[in-house]
Amino acid sequence: MTTKKKTTNNTVYTQEVRERCVSRDTLPAKIGALFLSLIVFANASYSIAQSTTVRFIDANGKTVAEVQAQSQNKQVYLPVNAVKQVIDPATTHQYNHPRQRLTLKTKDRQIRLQIGRPTVSIEPGAETVTLSTPPILIAQQPMLPIDFFTQLLPILNDVEVIYNSSLNRLQIRPKGTLTAVETNGSQDLVIIVDPGHGGPDDRGCAGSTGILEKDIVLTLAKQLQWTSEKHGIQLHLTRQTDTKKTHFQRIQVAKQNRGQLFLSLHCNTSFSPYQKGIRIYVNNPKGQLRFPSTTKPALTGQRLKILAQADYLKQSKDFADALQTELNFLTETPIQIIDLPLLPLSDAYMPAVVLELGYLSNVEDLEKLSNAEYIVNIAQAITRAFQRYISSIASTQL
Ligand SMILES: [Zn+2]
């Protein structure tokens, strides 16, 4: 369901000023009104509020609501009406101007806030929540900080919320999808994460700032291991340090640990500085099943090997889909999944996917991949993809 509603703050404000101008039709009053609007203008330019859009999306990436918001001092604020759109359509609100108190009434709760104060109280239950940013007034209208939604939504509705500040996206999903997976044995799925390259001779590609692919993917792999373990998913890394590993050694790690899913991490580079974005490659060995027309394909060892790997194609695609859904949350343009015979994975007898995190030859991608916060976000998205994949396996086994 998509509902669109635009904030009327600006219109309300302009109307107020206009009414003031019309009702007092004397010269001093006109000058007064002009003076007043100049002061307001000066104030407005002092603490600049810029309009922006916040998109609320569901667990599958579908837009639930798009809300016109204001950003001021690097914080995003939403109009009170947004509560109607995303929490409860029956919400009513009262704002007491002199006392600057705002009361929101949903079906079964009352939420009390005060402008400039971080404390929110919820009745019944006398629960209080301290927001990291208090609500403020913009153009005389009470505005709720984004924290109101990230911190209160999980309390009011049984949901979890993740916020992508660079894209102003808020994802609301049923509780449990971000926390530990249910103990039904399926979380014992053995996942191998392979940070590409390593060692002094194999640095992978490099960005103009000197940052190296081998370091980015290792940092991410370690972050991913930490995040996944926190959610009950064990990972095996093919390398823990900046060391050289052959393809054979990487596959050995997978085999020794009886891996059931192989995720290889890389970065891209291109001659074109415009080429950018995440790519997901699915290991599809059948894509390369080409034999010279003169020779009849025989069931050689090589061909058997290819056929054996093709058995994992569906699972590889399922995991790639899960990755795509979760990573799309972090990007402006939808991520592509590309089927390719992936030679480095030709001996991995398990579902296998290569994730190319971005182009180090592109300024935007380079900046993102050099940012520690972005790496944490990517690690969280991949962890959620693991959870999504694990629960899809669990549901087909029922
Ligand atoms: Zn690479």
Can you put this structure into words, describing what you see?
There is one protein chain. The chain has 398 residues and is of the alpha/beta class. 35% of the residues lie in helices and 26% in strands. The protein has ten helices and 19 strands. The strands form three sheets. Strands 1, 2, 3, 4, 10, 11, 12 and 13 form an eight-stranded mixed β-sheet that branches. It has a six-stranded mixed β-sheet with strand order 15-14-16-19-17-18, sandwiched between helices. Strands 5-6-7-8-9 form a five-stranded antiparallel β-sheet, with no helix packed on it. Helix 5 (213-230) packs across helix 10 and helix 8 packs across helix 10. It is elongated and about 70 Å long. Residues 196-197, 204, 213, 266 line the site of zinc ion (ZN). Residues 196-197, 204, 213, 266 line the site of zinc ion.
List unreliable stretches of 5+ residues: 1-27, 34-46, 179-186, 288-300
**Corresponding CATH superfamily of the largest domain:** Zn-dependent exopeptidases
CATH architectural label of the largest domain: 3-Layer(aba) Sandwich
Q: Sheet bearing the most strands, described? A: 8 strands, mixed
Number of domains: 2
SSE topology string: EHHEEEHEEEEEEEHEEEHEHEEHHEEHH
